[in-house]
Write a structure and sequence with these properties.
4 copies of one chain form a homotetramer. Chain A has 341 residues and is α/β, with parallel strands linked by helices. Helices cover 40% and strands 25% of the residues of chain A. In chain A, the strands form 3 sheets. A 7-stranded mixed beta sheet of chain A has the order 12-11-7-10-9-8-15. In chain A, strands 3-2-1-4-5-6 form a 6-stranded parallel beta sheet, sandwiched between helices. The first copy, chain A, has a two-stranded antiparallel sheet with strand order 13-14. β13 (265-268) of chain B pairs antiparallel with β12 of chain C, so a sheet runs across the interface.
Chain lengths: 341, 341, 341, 341
């Protein structure tokens, strides 16, 4: 573990120079006391471009992991590389920020959790939604008791369009790929764990998704150990864009988290009063959240504070995704204890 | 004055079987203890149709005014007949509900005020906006002190389309015909009287309106005796319909009165999120207000309570309309004491 | 069956002089061509009061059913009397408007459907929500193709407070008593039938509800024969009032039906921008719907048009309520064909 | 004028290390191809702190103006220094970005306009509102013809609280200090020039403001050369925060620009449905606008494009502020040709 006291900057290696890697790189470049040293990507050209942009160097995995000066890794590479890079980071006593999901298998995800615990390094999972200003303000208001005891949660989570079927084929399925975020929101907002889970779904947009063994819309219901209820509805294809809302009914009131609009223009025509559709997709919608989570990570690392989204949270969300997959496939309610086995 | 005690119904004569007459007739027919006896209109056919609908009879002015059993008159005939019918009602000791404006001249309006005062009859002017559920709830909240001292009022008052130019020619001008309502709102909401008034305007929709000596959009500013400010913006032609909003800034907050929509449907298309345009015109927008003002009138009559919109209010609104007309014509700020002379 | 041609009014008997009976009586009293002749209630005093208000007479069941002049019955008595009164109406060739639910058992509800079909009388069930201006405008826009093919429906249906536990004990349970409306909305909006249904729920407000064998909040998921998804969330106790919303995702967009507010006042204080909570409960929220459904019923009767909410719809909604009850009790997904057996 | 081709960065001197100076410094530090070289402030400590933050040096006016390597100046010092710094920048052939107002006197403001024109340097005035995403999207939609011909503009512009009276005493008065922005919005949105202007106002919050010869709330009406109307309402003290809205009525519709909220949380309590008050003040509300205007300035400098807010715009806004001051003081409508003399 690098000593971060005394103003010496934390040196960082970013794995993955794709869309999300570029966002994290830009955000961490803005952190005081943080220096982007390496960019690692199998696509050397992408790595070089990103490195150049921030005055960093291109490295390969061994080079980056082998450099004792590197205090933290930021993992934004493809899902199948996450676990291995977490394990290596832990072995090298480097703090880890890793994009969701930890892994597509519970076994490997749990191995990661064990490894970082043993190594005593910080490991934060990129559930950026918990850092969205609207979502985190809502959570703070629940915690302040504004709506009494939370009782029901309704999550609407809709993508503007399905990814390529080839991506879907290797995604682990809609529950691990897409609802993983919603499962994390569920645990965070209701502050409770699932007792039973029911999931169903359909293919309504593209038969190729069915051929790939997946579905494109789902309806999930969770009943918690304390009897609270959660419903999640999702689709891969909302014609009007990216729709990310939830509402929490409490014993004393209701809190809703709405979408963010690009502008506050309202237009009155002869037939309707209209405003903007929501921000187009996650890069726009969660722009502030991505910046805030990186700040949070480095504050946790430098100040020794706990992170808001731990690898244990990543494992728990994956357990729910596994349970949902099983429920959908078998057409039955799944007990979480059974799923967690 | 008819004795209304003992459950004997008040018998009523309605003058004017046009659009607004039909609304008042239907509303008063629903009042317990009220009976529509006569409908009077120069258009005998219209009178007959309305009378038939409510089991009433057709009468002429003398017949209706001469019937001692008639306890109240409801005057919805053309503006040039209002004053005469009010005077006759007063002379016959009949209570009066009269549509706005009292008259197009201050002199005659004041004569009406004097006459009803001397006769001791109730005389209510149809400023129905004061009975709109949204507007009256807002007023009640001001009165309850929710926003501290009211300081500024901004009134948006827009018609969906100009009436025929022939109507405009005999309307007394936009200030007496259209803004008379807004001047009443101003006095009611700010609970203050005008000290100075400035009005300007233009013809932007139809040159024929200019040829008729009128304008089709105006901007009025009033400064009250206590230094409070009011701005009114109006147009004869809002492409999106009937727009009736105002907002009151107080020392402790702001209250806005918004439009009413026909339905609460919200639609998300690929390009926008839309809801209904406001209710189409005054008959729809103020449907509830028309019913409530008639109830209020008959309650005042039967229970001896004061009316919310007196003939004095009608005179005051007309003074403001006169002042606005003068300000616009002469291109200068008008002092109300001067205008009232 | 009474001949309604030639302007002879349809004479009507209302069964039940309670809250909803009074509403229907007032609405039908306003219908041209309709005359309220009898009010029937075991509570003679309530019957007498309501009869007096509309110039009708008090009768008992036999008297009303035995009067051949009665062309239609309006049944608003307690649920356990519905089936018997429908059967008698059918036997007497009287048209029937009956409050939901038809009955608490499928067997008797189906017997009613058979009886009215054989008798050839109109039988309309009081699913008034289908007549709510917002809901019916939304449905018309779906039917016009505005959002393409409907794919998902999310229904939020929350009461402001639980009825007395004694009422709950005889209500047939939350699914038959409360969600019966939501099940009807589901069928109407998605224009599809359930294939599988999953229901879960909890008691979160009052342990006495659990003791009565019922729950106070539920989460239901339906998958239709065409693969469409529906989620319904309900509670007996929403602190902020009566919450009646739904949204329909289609292949081309989204339509939301929102709550109705008493006024359009918006207030800005030092800490928040606020508007009214929704209309307090069903009598306020569905005031327009109650009037429109009665008009619809008598138009159907006099003009021989089909009714929008048939007794078959009542049976179907009850089948869903039965399936939901079974799903909740047995903790498993229920196949509708099985439930319908 | 520095040659900015070939990737050599433009070196910049910032005058003023106060609140707005710090914002501009941070934003220009993020521009590619731009280097902050000097910070100048009579408060050497503030200058040093800001310089240190961005790796710049502290300089005095002569040092910064005398350095031929400085290609552009950014003037955020007190208003009474603006004109002199613009003149010096022009003399040294440096491009200028200057905060509003250009000067408190028309004579000196015009001298600045002349000087930069003769020098051929870019001179942009900091009317940042034109760069607000909501306002500029609205303007683009007007320009695209969405609402036909613009006819009326209503501007609501309210500060959350009055500045210290000592500031007010040297501010040039509310019209030059505060409404200068609104006058610029008026010209930009209606794309027209004032023909006549009427202003009135009051002191309603603090008698000390009256003693200082100023007012704290105003109502301004402008009629343009083409007969369009504009109303502006402002106050120094809106209890609920910073309120920046306007709406434009056109021949075909209406466009409204609303406030921006910190979050999209909506809360339902027992008594109201509430959302956040608007962003607290201009630093929060116009955060994006400040960044965008600086980018715009340097793009104009490096690419030789015209700036959106010229020194001529600054002069025009000042003419309106002069006219408004005269109208308010003299209690009469002012003709702009007269005011411009």
């Amino acid at each position: 573990m690098t000593d971060t006291a005394g103003g010496k900057p934390i040196e960082v290696a970013v794995f993955g120079a794709g869309r999300i890697g570029r966002i994290h790189a830009a955000n961490l470049a803005r952190q005081p006391g943080v220096r982007l040293k390496y960019v690692v990507d199998v696509n050397r050209e992408a790595a070089a471009a990103l490195a150049a942009q921030h005055g960093a160097q291109v490295a390969d995995i061994d080079g980056a992991m082998g450099d004792a000066a590197i205090g933290a890794t930021v993992i934004c590479s493809s899902t199948d590389t996450h676990a291995e890079l977490i394990l290596q980071s832990a072995a090298q006593k480097k703090h880890v920020f890793c994009e969701k999901p930890v892994d597509l298998t519970l076994e490997r995800a749990r191995a990661c959790a064990d490894a970082v615990a043993r190594a005593g390094v910080v490991c934060m999972i990129g559930f950026q939604r918990r850092f969205d200003p609207t979502f985190s303000a809502l959570k703070a208001r629940i915690d302040a008791g504004e709506i009494g005891t939370p009782e029901m949660l309704v999550v609407t989570s809709r993508d503007p369009g399905a990814p390529p079927v080839d991506y879907i084929r290797h995604s682990g399925g809609i529950f691990k790929d897409m609802l993983i975020h919603d499962f994390d929101i569920f645990r965070w907002i209701l502050d409770d764990e699932a007792d039973t889970l029911h999931a169903t779904g359909s293919v309504l947009t593209d038969p190729a998704i069915e051929a790939a063994g997946d579905i494109d819309c789902t309806a999930v219901t969770i009943r918690t150990k304390r009897g609270r209820l959660c419903q999640i509805n999702t689709t891969r294809r909302a014609a009007y864009g990216y729709d990310q809302r939830f509402e929490v009914l409490g014993s004393e009131g209701l809190l809703q988290a709405g979408n963010v609009r690009p502008t506050e223009v309202v237009a009155y025509s002869k037939t309707e009063v209209s405003s903007d559709v929501p921000e187009a997709f996650f890069l726009e919608r969660y722009r502030a959240a991505y910046a805030l989570e990186i700040t949070h990570f480095f504050e946790a690392v430098t100040q020794g504070k706990p992170v808001r989204t731990t690898v244990a949270d990543g494992v728990k969300a994956l357990e729910l995704a596994e349970a949902a997959t099983r429920s959908w496939r078998e057409g039955r309610t799944v007990k979480l204890d059974e799923a967690a086995r």
